[in-house]
Write a structure and sequence with these properties.
This protein has four helices and seven strands. The protein has helices at residues 11-26, 41-44, 91-105, 120-128; strands spanning 2-5, 51-57, 60-69, 74-82, 110-116, 132-139, 142-150. Strands 1-2-3-4-5-7-6 form a seven-stranded mixed beta sheet, sandwiched between helices.
């Protein structure tokens, strides 16, 4: 299993991976999470304090996570997905570890994650890392959970 930063030529594979999981597991939530950022990863996650990671197993994408700059002190944790066939192996932890390490190295003070109530595995994982739910918002039939973690 290899963790690597995404290169621009891998965008279509990543978009396919993420949108397949969204469609198969969270199709109701797709309206709350448009995937236009996946059309141009280089511009969406190419800032100095931004990154998009993939976990690769034998040339197959099995997990993703991204860090997006929200403001000078705050990062957004995005696109946290693990292939259903690879779940339960600690890969989500490996992805969150990489994202938190990146945030610390880039001097973010906090990181936030937003998810719907159907994204229970991701929410549970983030809470295990000390993310705290700070608000809930109702949006077109969805409950969006806003989780925040201070970075020491």
């Amino acid at each position: 299993m290899k963790l690597k930063c995404v290169k621009k030529d891998e965008g279509s594979r990543i978009k396919n991976f993420v949108t397949t999981i969204l469609h198969d597991e969270f199709s109701i939530d797709m309206a709350a999470y448009p995937h236009s950022d996946l059309d141009d990863l280089e511009n969406s996650y190419g800032g100095q304090r931004e990154v998009f990671y993939c976990l690769i197993d034998n040339k197959k994408i099995v997990g993703t996570v991204a860090v997006k700059n929200d403001d000078e002190k705050t990062a957004l944790l995005r696109r946290l997905f693990v292939d259903p066939k690879y779940r339960g192996q600690g890969l989500g932890k490996k992805l969150v570890d990489a994202a938190l390490k990146f945030c610390k190295e880039n001097k973010y003070e906090r990181i936030c994650f937003r998810c719907t109530e159907r994204m229970q595995n991701a929410m549970k994982l983030c809470k295990a890392y000390g993310f705290v739910e700070t608000e809930k918002a109702e949006l077109a039939g969805f409950t969006i959970h806003h989780l925040l973690k201070e970075i020491p």
